[in-house]
Amino acid sequence: MNGLVLYRSRYGATRQYAEWIGTDLRLPVIDPDMLNDQLLAGCDFLVIGTSVYLGDLLLKAWLKGNKHRLEQKKLFFFIVCAPSPDASGHGQIIMDNIPGDLLRPSTDIVFLPGRWIFRQLSPTDGRVLKEKALAETDPAKKAALSQDSDAVKKEHIAGLLDAVRSFNQSIEM
Ligand SMILES: Cc1cc2nc3c(=O)[nH]c(=O)nc-3n(C[C@H](O)[C@H](O)[C@H](O)COP(=O)(O)O)c2cc1C
After folding, report:
1. Which of 116, 150, 156 to probe ligand 1 with, by most ligand atoms within 8 A of CB?
2. Which of 39, 47, 116, 139 could serve as a FRET partner for 26 with CA atoms 20 to 30 Å apart?
């Protein structure tokens, strides 16, 4: 397969998914800042992973700055979000973060559940979650925001792996 996995992660959830994807598909996993024209010319597709913080993808600015290069390629996005994702907000995250030129019918986007472990968070990030928990009125959501939660599981990447494999078969035919 001629593809690359690019990702940005703050506490490792997105990195874990990127490594599983790279290993299973036997693709190089690189920092987006390492992407250059030579690497890009040699690949048929990119798998791009990024987590979301307060509605912003960690790769938001990078996507905007690199859209002219990315629009030539088949793109698969995986967006790592809250451990219990609220799908009602996913459309907004896409619209706010991924440049319109990259949102073609052929662009695949999946949301994968992430994790938060309070002792690993920066003081600011820990405070943000605590403030969200305080403001939350739904008791179940309040409890979820108040404790460690880890939903990162390899099984969640199965659909993405299938999509990449079937794209690759289609271009080899
Ligand atoms: C301060 C903070 C803000 C977050 N904001 C959002 C958010 O707006 N939407 C969401 O779905 N998840 C949000 N999350 C959950 C993260 O996306 C999740 O913890 C993810 O696994 C982080 O992945 P990373 O370790 O690869 O950066 C937030 C987490 C933290 C700690």
Report:
1. 116
2. 116
